[in-house]
Structures are given as C-alpha cells and as structure tokens.
Design brief:
The structure is a single chain. The longest helix is centred in the C-terminal third of the chain and has 26 residues. The termini are far apart. A hairpin with a 3-residue loop joins strand 3 and strand 4. Strands 1, 2, 3, 4, 5, 6 and 7 form a seven-stranded antiparallel sheet that branches. The chain contains four helices and seven strands, in the order αββββαββαβα. It is an alpha+beta fold. 40% of the residues lie in helices and 32% in strands.
Length: 148
C-alpha cells in the first residue's frame, strides 16, 4: 500500500522523503507524515499526520479553540500530545483511513484537507499556545537556537 501511496504522490508532483512505511512531506509551514500501520488483527490504516505547533503550553483557550475547529472540519482532528516531537508538547492535525478500502480520490481529498487546515491554523495554534509552528521550530533547531 505504501508503494501505491508514493506513486500517487509522485503523480501529483508532491515532494516527499521516504522512510520505512512512511512519507514525510514538507508543506508550507508544516510537516506532514503519511504512515501505513497495522490495525486490529488483519487491517491497516493510512494515517496522515501534520505537525502544527510545538513547545505549546496547554490552556483552556487553546483547547477550546482546537475543540471548536474539530467540530467544524470534516476531515481531520486536532490533538495535543504532552510528549510529542523532541518530547515537547505538540499539536497535530490528523486523519486515519482504512487502507484495505482506500482509493486515490479519498486519499487525495484527506491529504489535501490535512495539509491545508494544518497550514491555515498553525500560526494561530502556536500563538494561543505560546509555541512555534513546525517550520519555525525546525529552522531554529537547525540553526542551533533551540534549547534542549
């Protein structure tokens, strides 16, 4: 399945880095992972996961904003993970699809939705959480400005 997904990405001209059972896609100010993972006994999922903001501080205002967006957006959901990227509090935007029944149109619609909404909301989420967008975080880390 991952080979089929990679061929779809190639045909759309989407640049990515291939890792085992995963493609990493830099998109605007976010980073999107497309993973093929086992689920239950005989099934698999295709997970599309965008890193939205890192090193965020949890707050009622932030969580209210994320929950309200979750109620409005048809594909995807925001999640907060205390020990996310580099063990920093991280907000993701993601969606899972059943791999065994996945067709190209559904995959492309979900991928477009995840990439678009993650990029649309990353600056607001970073602002509300006092953190950084994925692009800013990794740029600072690469430049040596991120304190461990």
């Amino acid at each position: 399945m991952i080979d089929k997904i990679l061929s779809w990405l190639d045909e759309k001209g989407i640049k990515y880095e291939k890792h085992e059972n995963m493609a990493i896609i830099p998109y605007e100010s976010t980073i999107v992972a497309v993973r093929y993972v086992p689920w239950l006994e005989k099934l698999h999922l295709v997970e599309i996961i965008a890193t939205v903001a890192l090193d965020v501080k949890p707050s009622l205002e932030l969580f209210k904003f994320l929950l309200e967006r979750n109620a409005e957006i048809p594909f995807g959901k925001f999640t907060y993970v205390e020990n996310g990227v580099d063990a920093k509090p991280t907000v993701y935007f993601s969606h899972s699809l059943l791999a065994e029944k996945l067709d190209r149109e559904e995959f492309e619609t979900a991928l477009s939705s995840i990439m678009g909404y993650a990029d649309e909301y990353d600056e607001k989420v970073a602002e509300l959480g006092g953190g950084k967008t994925a692009e800013a975080y990794f740029r600072e880390k690469k430049e040596g400005g991120e304190k461990q």
